[in-house]
Amino acid sequence: KAGVTQTPRYLIKTRGQQVTLSCSPISGHRSVSWYQQTPGQGLQFLFEYFSETQRNKGNFPGRFSGRQFSNSRSEMNVSTLELGDSALYLCASSLGTAGFNQPQHFGDGTRLSIL
Amino acid sequence: AQKVTQAQTEISVVEKEDVTLDCVYETRDTTYYLFWYKQPPSGELVFLIRRNSFDEQNEISGRYSWNFQKSTSSFNFTITASQVVDSAVYFCALSGPLSGGSYIPTFGRGTSLIVHP
């Protein structure tokens, strides 16, 4: 069974630009969550999508947005990039039928660097 | 609010030593789930174990064992006879009940385990 696939693995952007990250979940998983991991803040929850609807949202500004398609693939967009957005962005999928009480399966992440 | 504390930022051991990673949690929910994940250098978090709040039995899986104690709100993880391949960052996480309460998972800051040959 293929795992969670995130593309691209690495991205370099400059301040003010926008970026779109992609995540393909494990087949059959309907929940996709996004996390931001930084040395300073650790692993922070961004949002979760389930059946194309945002089901949960963390405490991030509106510059961070996402969407989910009918095939459960998800994209995350960050607009007007700031230096502090430099981080590893992780995507995780799960069946989603029992919320976060089911194990999540993570991708390798996208490392975003802002210059 | 939920909180997960992993007080050990980094642990360094020599191969074959036993090592325990501590996890202390706070929650007002009576039903909750606890998790441990491993993050090797490649970046992908790997699920290790899930425990619900009603099951306090300890669990052993090969060289890994987990000790869950509600009385002290702790869910500690022990690796017996550590190996170099165990080198990774380990995260403890907490999630709330299916309905109501704190729903979003809370992760600890992680413990970096370095196993020297």
From the structure provided, what is the oligomeric state, counting identical versus distinct chains? heterodimer
Summed over residues and divided by their number, the pLDDT of chain A gives a mean of: 92
Low-confidence stretches of chain A: none
- Secondary-structure-derived class of chain B: mainly beta
- Radius of gyration of chain B from CA coordinates: 14 Å
Termini Cα gap of chain B: 41 Å
Question: Into which percentage range does the β-strand content of chain B fall?
Answer: over 45%
Unreliable parts of chain B: none
Q: What is the average of the pLDDT values of chain B?
A: 90
Class by SSE composition of chain A: mainly beta
Largest β sheet strand count, sense and barrel closure of chain A: 7 strands, mixed
Largest sheet of chain B: 6 strands, mixed
Helix share bin of chain A: under 10%
CA distance, first residue to last residue of chain A:
37 Å
Q: How many beta-strand elements of chain A?
A: 11
Order of helices and strands of chain B: EEEEEEEEEEEE
Helix percentage of chain B: under 10%
Name the largest protein-protein interface in this structure: A-B, 24 and 23 residues
| Strand portion of chain A | over 45%
Shape of chain B: globular
The helix/strand series of chain A, from N terminus to C terminus, equals: EEEEEEEEEEE
Task: Set out the fold topology.
The complex is a heterodimer of chains A (115) and B (117).
Chain A: E1 5-7, E2 10-13, E3 19-24, E4 31-38, E5 42-50, E6 53-57, E7 64-68, E8 74-78, E9 87-94, E10 105-106, E11 110-114
Parallel strand pairs in A: 2-11
Antiparallel strand pairs in A: 1-3, 3-8, 4-5, 4-9, 5-6, 7-8, 9-10, 9-11
Chain B: E1 3-5, E2 10-14, E3 19-21, E4 24-26, E5 33-39, E6 46-52, E7 59-61, E8 64-69, E9 74-79, E10 88-95, E11 106-107, E12 111-116
Q: How would you describe this protein?
A:
- The complex is a heterodimer of chains A (115) and B (117).
- Chain A is built from no helices and eleven strands.
- The mean pLDDT of chain A is 92.
- Chain A has strands at 5-7, 10-13, 19-24, 31-38, 42-50, 53-57, 64-68, 74-78, 87-94, 105-106, 110-114.
- With 115 residues, chain A is mostly beta strands.
- In chain A, strands 2, 4, 5, 6, 9, 10 and 11 form a seven-stranded mixed β-sheet that branches.
- Chain B contains no helices and twelve strands.
- In chain B, strands 2, 5, 6, 10, 11 and 12 form a six-stranded mixed β-sheet that branches. In chain B, strands 3-9-8-7 form a four-stranded antiparallel β-sheet, with no helix packed on it.
- Chain B starts with a strand and ends with a strand.
- At the A-B interface, strand 5, strand 9 and strand 10 of A face strand 5 and strand 6 of B.
